[in-house]
Specification:
By secondary structure, the protein is α/β, with parallel strands linked by helices. The chain has 21 helices and 24 strands. Bound molecules: nicotinamide-adenine-dinucleotide (NAD) and 3-phosphoglyceric acid (3PG). This is D-3-phosphoglycerate dehydrogenase 2.
């Protein structure tokens, strides 16, 4: 009898041989549910058939490590398998630009590290097919040719810094290569350099220094301008821009900012007014650039926009040279529209020796030193080494650039197995319940994982987190998302995720909700990802291993009958849970099994008179 069965609103596992793990479980779903932001997320790629995913031995080791941490089984059971790593070749990590020692130490503890600086593009292409990872700064151009030459071996490119304009992201994505960066550690260094350039430009420090060294004493020539009371326009109010703004306010400047994507409350918190692009140009005495270089911002400062600036404006650029049309800047300097410029970055680095811009007497230059403090370089090295090692291990960093990441893959994989025929899915709806304000919930990672889970089983091509969304679009799969505010603990960003597939038939009718779509829901309980709802039935099934779902008449003895059949066929049941609509009506059994049941055992289950339908699902 279904003694412990429960109503759909109150579900209880009936028994389990699996230990409930502690909160330190490395379960991937747990990780994503508990870490949408902002620290690197520890996640496993559980995919197969993959150039991109971690070498098999790493996956084995991770899974076993997790098992050791979460299981009550004796450690010795896994020890032999863990020893596998001893015979596995270490991944090769190519570092093509100088990286801090602390980062190199992390990399060396994990793989074979080769530091080859100043490689020509040809030499890089030649080397790359032997490398699992490549770590660069801004000096290495990671072009499509590099990904082509990698021949599928390259799994991750780590950018030891923020700007990824030197990496061909489209090519990386197409080749299934993850790109991660280190966005945090050099923020303050860049902001401090911006302020250093601002102040030294205003007081002619570098020109005056050079003149004394040339034997001159030019006190009246180098009278400067004051910063206090002047208006500074911060163009790009992100990490660096907002730190520059804070510091400039400390210097007594009136700070405004332009950033089409910055939240107004973030600017308000710093005491900065967000203004339009034209308003910023027209008002500012000083302009400091802090936006990324991309097709929208390329040469955004040009003849037309210089003409909109206040005559005598002073410009600082510690962002990217390419956001300025450098020839137009020379013209603006010559005409006096721009009184001075202080530049750390250039369209071509290093710039030509005879560059008119660099040689201009009203221009102060530094050789891309924004991130170059000891502290920032050590920090960046550690940040990128951890992200790259994590990626090679099959985990995924929150700093991944081209992968909307993180697992929930199993929910997707489970949903697609409930579709009869498995194909023809055109429309997927994902509903996230969270205590967070919907605007603060970044679901890209979850969405990519679910998408991967849905399309991988029905796709001939290789799917990973990087190309999942792209492939889904190509297949005409429409994915919509809804965020629902839940009355749950704000400690956990996501309370539950529901996956709905519409306009498809199901091989398990109980999975179809009253609205006609296949609907399943998952959440984390006791540190383990669980399936909590199938159609209108509440269940409580750990999302690990294999699962049999049965719909039966709710009557005594059902659990015993099915349990016996599996036992007779040597299939180990690791949990069972029963949900039902209402008493003595229909019930649903979720049975977790360690082994894949053979056809005979499944046939026998189907013959049990009160079993109305059942389905075997591989997670
Ligand atoms: N010189 C250096 O050594 C150095 C060091 C660090 C960062 N950087 C560069 O500084 C820039 C900012 O870095 P970050 O860490 O602050 O990045 P970030 O992503 O935190 O900030 C960039 C900001 O620019 C905004 N933005 C995007 N398009 C814009 C546009 N058209 N107009 C105005 N704002 C726009 C974004 O919304 C974002 O808020 C990047 O270009 C980065 O490469 C240079
Ligand atoms: O984008 C960045 O992080 C900076 O431009 C730093 O570049 P670098 O690593 O080449 O110093």
């Amino acid at each position: 009898m279904a003694a412990s069965s429960s109503s759909s609103s109150s579900i209880k596992p009936i028994f389990t041989t699996r230990s409930k793990s502690s909160n330190s479980s490395k379960s991937s779903l747990l990780s994503f549910l508990h870490n949408t932001n902002p620290k690197p997320i520890s996640l496993k790629f559980s995919s197969h058939n993959s150039n991109y995913t971690t070498p098999p031995s790493f996956t084995i080791r991770n899974s076993l490590q997790t098992a050791l941490e979460t299981s009550e089984l004796p450690v010795s059971k896994f020890q032999d398998d863990l020893n596998l790593q001893a015979v596995t070749p270490k991944p090769t990590i190519l570092v093509s630009e100088k990286l801090g020692e602390a980062g190199l130490a992390i990399l060396r503890s994990f793989g074979n590290v080769e530091c080859l600086y100043d490689l020509s593009p040809e030499a890089l292409c030649e080397k790359i097919s032997q490398c699992d990872a490549l770590i660069v700064r801004s000096g290495t151009k990671v072009t499509r040719s590099v990904f082509e030459a990698a021949n599928g071996k390259l799994k991750v490119v780590g950018r030891a810094g923020v700007g990824i304009d030197n990496v061909d992201l489209q090519a990386a994505t197409e080749f299934g290569c993850l790109v991660v960066n280190a966005p945090i550690a050099n923020t303050v260094a860049a902001a401090e350099h911006g302020i250093a350039l601002l102040a030294s430009m205003a007081r002619n420090v570098s020109q005056a220094d050079a003149s004394i060294k040339a034997g001159k004493w030019l006190r009246s020539k180098y009278v400067g301008v004051s910063l206090v009371g002047k208006t500074l326009a911060v163009m790009g109010f992100g990490k660096v821009g907002s730190e520059v703004a804070r510091r400039a306010k400390g210097l007594g400047m009136n700070v405004i900012a332009h950033d089409p994507y910055a939240p107004a409350d973030k600017a308000r918190a710093v005491g900065v007014e967000l203004v339009s692009f034209d308003q910023a140009l027209a008002t500012a005495d000083f302009i400091s650039l802090h936006m990324p270089l991309n097709p929208t911002t390329s040469k955004i400062f040009n003849d037309e926009t210089f003409a909109k600036m206040k005559k005598g404006v002073r410009i600082v650029n510690v962002a990217r040279g390419g956001v300025i049309d450098e020839e137009a800047l020379v013209r603006a300097l010559d005409s006096g529209v721009v009184a001075q410029a202080a530049l750390d970055v250039f369209t071509e680095e290093p710039p030509a020796k005879d560059s008119k811009l660099v040689q201009h007497e009203n221009v102060t230059v530094t050789p891309h030193l924004g991130a170059s403090t000891k502290e920032a370089q050590e920090g960046v090295a550690i940040e990128i080494a951890e992200a790259v090692v994590g990626a090679l291990r099959g985990e995924l960093s929150a700093t991944a650039i081209n992968a909307p990441m993180v697992p929930s893959e199993k929910l997707g994989r489970l949903a697609v197995q409930l579709v009869s025929g498995g194909s023809g899915i055109k429309s997927v709806k994902l509903i996230y319940r969270s205590a967070r304000d919907p605007d603060d919930l970044d679901t890209r990672i979850l969405r990519a994982m679910i998408t991967k889970g849905i399309i991988e089983p029905i796709s001939a091509s290789f799917i990973n987190l990087v190309n999942a969304d792209f492939t889904a679009k190509q297949k005409g799969l429409r994915i919509s998302e809804e965020r629902v505010v839940a009355d749950s603990s704000p400690e956990f960003p996501i309370d539950s995720i529901q996956v709905q597939l519409s306009n498809v038939d199901s091989k398990f009718a109980a999975a179809v909700s009253e609205n006609g779509e296949i609907s399943i829901e998952g959440k984390v309980k006791f540190g383990i990802p669980h399936l909590t709802r199938v159609g209108s039935f509440g269940v409580d099934a750990s999302l690990e291993g294999n699962l049999i779902l049965c719909r039966q008449v709710d009557q005594p003895g059902m659990i015993g009958k099915v349990g016996n059949i599996l036992g007779e066929h040597n299939v180990n049941v690791n949990f069972m849970s029963v949900g039902r609509t209402f008493r003595r009506n229909h019930g649903i059994m979720a049975i977790g099994v360690d082994e894949e049941p053979n056809q005979d055992s499944l046939k026998e289950i189907g013959k049990v008179p009160a079993i109305e339908e059942f389905v075997f699902l591989k997670l």
